[in-house]
Amino acid sequence: MLPAHDHPDAYAKAFNNNSAWRRSLAETDPELFESLGKGQSPQILWIGCADSRCPETTILGLQPGEIFCHRNIANILVNTDINSLSVIQFAVQYLKVKHIIICGHTSCGGIAAALDNKKLGLIDTWLMPLRAIRQQNLDLLQSLSEKERALKLVELNVRAGISTLLQNPMVIDAMSERGLQVHGLIYNVGTGELRELDVGEGQDVEKSRVVAFKTE
């Protein structure tokens, strides 16, 4: 254990919190840690932003082991990112998750950077897909207020991620064979509220792709 301090720094505080958290969880669910030590069987894959204000387990009120997650800057999902594709494959093919959630959020720094379109360095490469979405919807975005513009790009980015998922053969197969569901959410960091996007049209697109990818 780290030595006690009257005013511990952020790391020391976080490390020392572990003992209290572990004891509390063991009291409320004595078998949880033993169960987790044997493996995991989450039913949800969460693809979200790395923002510190958007911790998926806390937002959803879930316990360790209940959600498999992948987070990056601005919850960008493209079919060329081996990192996210590996997570999706593991979650869908091996963990057999029943739901995939793509969640964007308000006050997103990545969204703001894409809208500003300023030179930022390495992150510019990562934001290219998001800036492409901005460019494709430039007339719509410019017709909105600054606040509305940011929220609309959050939504468009989530929908783009859903579209990417629905081009993934593993996801398509799991949807048709065992009822995997895909969801788009937006989290309001100022209120703690989740809002679900209507992605029904995307599910219809999935049906046509089942036929397109079907093999004998």
TrEMBL record:
Its cofactor is Zn(2+). SMART domains: Pro_CA (SM00947). It is an enzyme of class 4 (lyase). The keyword Zinc applies. One of its GO terms (cellular component) is cytoplasm. This is Carbonic anhydrase. One of its GO terms (molecular function) is carbonate dehydratase activity. It catalyses: hydrogencarbonate + H(+) = CO2 + H2O. PANTHER family: CARBONIC ANHYDRASE. Keywords: Lyase, Metal-binding, Zinc. Reversible hydration of carbon dioxide. Zn(2+) binds at residues 49, 51, 105, 108. It comes from the Eukaryota. Belongs to the beta-class carbonic anhydrase family. One of its GO terms (biological process) is cellular response to oxidative stress. InterPro entries: Carbonic_anhydrase, Carbonic_anhydrase_CS, Carbonic_anhydrase_sf.
